[in-house]
Amino acid sequence: MHGLFLCDDLIFTSRVTGTAAALGLSVRACKTPTALLDFARQTPPRCVILDLHATGLDIEAMLGALTQLAPRPTIVGFGSHVDVATLKAARDAGCDVVWPRSKFVDELATAMPEWFGGSKG
Prior knowledge:
The protein is an alpha/beta fold. It has five helices and five strands.
């Protein structure tokens, strides 16, 4: 099972990919939304994790493209707890899980297996 992770922060990317590896999961880090979509179209992932503050991310366009994949991946978004509008936009666009960054960090190791556990219809 593989997943994709959109984030342009190298240290945070290492934390997420390292957690995935420790759980026996494979997560490919992508620095741009275009790269993520290119990889997703080549081999649809089980899970896509989006840093909602990644440079160039249009959440509606991204979700529109990701929800067309078959099978549809679980889509997780995270962002700053003070940026309520961005978190709401991600929920409204169709993210399955939207958490503030602090909860994402705290829950990552326990939630990640669930995100990879099944496809969406």
